[in-house]
Specification:
Blueprint: H1 17-24, H2 31-38, H3 40-64, H4 71-93, H5 106-126, H6 132-138, H7 142-153, H8 160-177, H9 180-183, H10 196-223, H11 229-250, H12 261-287, H13 290-297, H14 300-311, H15 318-347
């Protein structure tokens, strides 16, 4: 007679007691790992904004050394690195027509490059006379301007509230510019030696840069999925190299050859950090929702203010802080309204071609843009 505790043939394989016990003993995933896993895109976007802030800091420092490095040279050096990196990437991954882009969108890519150059020139020039935080926040006017341009040229919807947000943001610009005819002369500012006239001129050039960025982003919206995102980067960096080189020749601007290790390090920092920031933002926006991506992009103003305090030993005056809050609030409202509108159109069953969010400039398509 067989023992009662024996296992009959065929039944022993049905219950894998050791495996069940092993599964029960598995330790839960640590909270910090789950937190990182659930916010990878957000963290990548935030990291890209930190690199952008450091890049702007390098531009600011190079503008202040003697002799100062010209804005055109800064653009040239940065975009040569970006162009080479983009060509290497497109060649390695087999992206077709890397230099001119697909037929049918080449004119749009050209207008994207022109707008990108002026957008970049606007912020780099303004950093000569504006604080790091003020120059950064003025770029956040681009989402509002692009929403208006999209309504006029691409027949996109634009609400009265979004127009009101645009008008309100102009009040923030006035507080940052602080024109003498309104504020009666120089006000306390972290930028020593900058006259009210120079400050007003810097804000004016920054606004021209905003218009350039608006042209670039509107062109991107029109291109949509008809070109690879890297075609945008090639057009942007290639034209920036050409235009900045021509501008240096026409204006007889001397090319400053680095004679100190600090100069060389800062120049390389602009190019390398800018390219790294683009890659991180690409990866982050591919993994993140539009609304959360929008929130992460605006963290750059926090980084800019911190870096300004640590490295430049200055803090924004109260009027600049108030202007910053106004502009960011208006830009956030505009960007998130677009996100909500897109969600409602999808819920109602309508659809439209949405461009790939795969590089820093295309962040605008569902959130605030970058033309850094």
């Amino acid at each position: 007679m067989a023992p009662q505790n024996s296992i009959h043939p065929g039944h022993g394989d049905e219950l894998d007691i050791p495996s069940a016990l092993e599964g029960a003993k598995e330790k839960p995933t640590p909270y910090w790992k789950r937190l990182v896993a659930n916010n990878v895109g957000l963290l990548l976007v935030a990291a890209s904004e930190l690199f952008f802030a450091f890049m702007h800091l390098a531009v600011k420092i190079l503008n202040s050394i003697d002799p100062p490095v010209s804005t055109f040279e800064l653009i040239l050096v940065r975009m040569v690195i970006t162009y080479v990196g983009s060509i290497i990437y497109m060649t390695a991954t087999g992206v077709p027509e890397p230099f001119l882009g697909p037929k049918g969108v080449r004119l749009l890519l050209f207008s994207r490059g022109i707008g990108g150059f002026f957008g970049l020139y606007g912020i780099y020039f303004s950093l000569q006379y504006l604080s790091l935080s003020d120059a950064t926040v003025l770029t956040f006017l681009s989402p509002i301007c692009t929403a208006i341009a999209g309504a006029f040229f691409l027949k996109e919807s634009l609400s009265a509230r979004q127009l009101l947000a645009g008008l309100v943001s102009l009040g923030g610009v006035v507080l940052i510019a602080r024109p003498p005819f309104l504020f009666g002369g120089a006000s306390p500012d972290g930028e020593r030696g900058v006259t009210p006239t120079q400050r007003l001129m810097a804000v004016g050039v920054a606004l021209i840069g905003v218009l350039g960025a608006t042209l670039a982003f509107t062109s991107l919206r029109a291109i949509g999925k008809r070109a690879h995102p890297m075609h945008s980067m090639i057009s942007f960096s290639g034209q920036a190299i050409v235009f900045s080189g021509i501008a240096m020749l026409v204006t007889n601007t001397k090319f400053i050859v680095p004679t100190r290790l600090t100069w060389l390090a800062l120049l390389l920092m602009i190019g390398i950090f800018g390219f790294i920031a683009q890659i991180l933002l690409t990866m982050g926006l591919q993994r993140e929702t539009a609304g959360r991506g929008t929130m992460a992009v605006y963290i750059q103003i926090v980084f800019a203010t911190i870096l300004q305090r640590i490295f430049l030993h200055s803090t924004p005056p109260p009027l600049s802080i108030l202007g910053t809050v106004i502009i960011i609030a208006a830009a956030l409202y505009t960007a998130l309204s677009k996100v909500k509108e897109k969600g409602q159109s999808l819920a109602s069953g309508t659809s439209r071609a949405v461009p790939n969010q795969a590089d820093e400039e295309q962040a605008l398509l569902s959130g605030p843009p970058h033309e850094d």
